[in-house]
Write a structure and sequence with these properties.
The chain is built from 1 helix and 10 strands; from the N terminus they run H-E-E-E-E-E-E-E-E-E-E. The protein is mainly beta. It has one domain (25-155). The protein has an 8-stranded antiparallel sheet, with no helix packed on it. A two-stranded antiparallel sheet has the order 2-5. It is elongated.
Amino acid sequence: MPTFTTWPAGKPFTADRINAMVGPLQTYTPVVTNAGSATFTTLTGIYVVMGPLTWVNIDLTVGTAGSGSGLVTITMPSAPDHTQRQVLTMHTESVGSGGNASSHIGGGEAVFLAGGSGTTTDRLRTDEGSTTARENNVMGNDLLAGGHITIQGFYL
């Protein structure tokens, strides 16, 4: 499959040529770590590869509340480039942060740190739901039953 950096000079971007660079929509099952006793009633992932980019959408719903104080992480369908920091947009409902589980709607990100490795995020961060509107890391005990997390975006 041609990449954006090797596209032949002078060739226009037509729909056929662009479609040739875009792989098929695929599914995978993300793996959540450091969630303690949490179970998930929904845990799905879809992705598509477009040249050097991967677009991913992860959807999870917490069935049984989590436990523990480890940083919750989640796998991607392929390893991101860890030579630079990357983030994906994350939306949370009834998921706290920093050990302060609370029922609220929050925004945040799935973070890949420079120097990391493999397919797993280095951390998930979300609004803590307080009046200070700070972001903190999501830990196992922040996963409330019925909570929902959606992660979506492009990574290299």
